[in-house]
Design a protein that fits this description.
heterodimer; A: 216 residues; alpha/beta; Glutaconate Coenzyme A-transferase; nine-stranded mixed β-sheet; three-stranded mixed β-sheet; 17% helix; B: 219 residues; 6 helices; globular
């Protein structure tokens, strides 16, 4: 199982039937592929759709129905569309149960940086700041390190996306939560030791006496 | 509502105007109105559009043709020409979170003096903005956006000018149709009055100034 699949599979287990879920671009998008049997959630695309589904049939793509990455999608029976003010009202107003976002960095209090590398990468924040600020639960999907360097840091040196801390970080090595505002190791990935996680993490990590392995 | 051809519709827009253009990555953008802006070579435009699409798509064509002085958007990451012109200081870019962008337009169209949002508090976005504390929580004061012209892409239009939009091509179109002095609409289909049920009209005809129906045969 590759790193991205581990992350996507683990996050899919956080989703429960009836939830409204917004998936970011990249690894987060893959979460939809691993929903546990019997779990049915509504996916929101912030360009104005609840009920987003993958295109089921070749040749069914059409230009008026796309996801937030601009790719053609399908809409499930019961789907609905709306304008962008409504879409972000849903996001900011706490009506989205879970958002899954990618990250450049997360700090030990759960603060997220995922929208810019000043001077190098200035794509704009799109919907990331609203999602990170307004969704009921924010889950980060990312590789534990980038080019061997930790991404979970004492403090982010990149500009923050929100001052509201994320709820859960799921990487190819670990699941980390932030009870009482402190990064805490909750699970390790199969075949990964607590020591390996600690070594790959710059943030001060609280390690309970017993850390279970991820169930995938 | 007045029906006009493309040339006359875009001829109304002077150099230096501010234009809101509907669409999300080009979906819902009035493509023929954009093409006509390029053909007429308008200059120094301020664009208010969620993104800059891609080169050759939607408002990406305005970037490539060098028609823009400034763009107010939430995302420009998929248009490398915007990035290049921004770093070369040929194009001013104002980035605003997408939900804030939508609400600033809504405020501009609804006569509000601005909106209070928690989005951006404590980030680079708050620079130069006022903050208010309401019931112990901090909010940024975000100012309204209003434009000289709105270029709207609609799916159906009846003979009085009521509009409806299709699927995710709706996006920013209805709120932009509220927030400009002059509203120009490119439509896919004109239908008999009454075919869009009152419950399904998304933009009332009274907001629509000009409708462009014509298109070359075969397009």
């Amino acid at each position: 199982m590759d790193a991205q699949e581990i992350i996507a599979r683990r996050i899919a287990r956080e989703l429960h039937s009836g939830m409204l879920v917004n998936l970011g671009i990249g690894i987060p998008t893959q979460v939809a592929n691993y929903l546990p049997p019997g779990v049915e959630v509504w996916f929101q695309s912030e360009n104005g759709l609840i009920g987003t589904a993958p295109l089921a049939l070749e040749g069914m793509a059409q230009g008026l129905l796309t996801d937030a990455a601009g790719r053609p999608v399908a809409a499930l029976p019961g789907a609905c569309t709306f304008d962008s003010a409504m879409s972000f009202g849903l996001i900011r107003g706490g009506h989205v149960d879970v958002t899954v976002l990618g990250a450049l960095q997360v700090d030990q209090a759960g603060h997220l940086a995922n929208w810019t590398i000043p001077g190098k990468l200035v794509p704009g924040m799109g919907g990331a700041m609203d999602l990170a600020t307004g969704a009921r639960r924010v889950i980060i999907a990312m590789q534990h390190t980038a080019k061997g360097k930790p991404k979970i840091l004492r403090a982010c040196d990149l500009p923050l996306t929100s001052t509201r801390p994320v709820d859960l970080v799921v990487t190819d090595m670990a699941v980390i939560g932030f009870p009482e505002g402190r990064a805490t190791l909750l699970e390790t990935a199969p075949g990964v030791s607590v020591e390996q996680v600690v070594a790959a993490t710059e943030a001060q990590l609280t390690v309970p006496s017993s850390v279970p392995a991820m169930q995938l | 509502m007045e029906c006009v051809n493309l040339e006359k519709a875009i001829g109304l827009i002077p150099d230096g105007a501010s234009i809101m253009v509907g669409g999300f990555m080009g979906i819902g953008t009035p493509e023929r109105l954009v093409d006509e802006l390029v053909r007429q070579g308008k200059r120094d435009l301020t664009l208010i559009c969620n993104d800059n699409a891609r080169p050759g798509v939607g408002v990406g064509k305005l970037v490539s043709a060098g028609l823009l002085k400034k763009t107010i958007s939430s995302h420009i990451g998929l248009n490398p020409e915007t990035q290049k012109r921004m770093f070369d200081k040929q194009l001013e870019v104002e980035l605003t979170p997408q939900g804030t962008f939508a609400e600033r337009i809504r405020a501009g169209g609804c006569g509000l003096g601005g909106v209070l949002t928690p989005t951006g508090v404590g980030t680079l976005v708050e620079e130069g903005k006022r903050k208010l504390e309401i019931d112990g929580k901090e909010y940024l004061v975000e100012t309204p956006l209003h434009a000289d012209f709105a270029l709207i892409g609609a799916f159906l239009c009846d003979y009085v000018g009521n509009l409806s939009y299709a699927l995710t091509a709706r996006n920013f179109n209805p709120i932009m149709a509220m927030a400009a002095d002059t509203v120009i609409v490119e439509i896919e289909h004109i239908v008999p009055t009454g075919m869009i049920s009152p419950d399904h009209v998304m933009t009332p005809a009274t907001l629509v100034d000009y409708v462009v129906v014509d298109r070359p045969l075969g397009s």
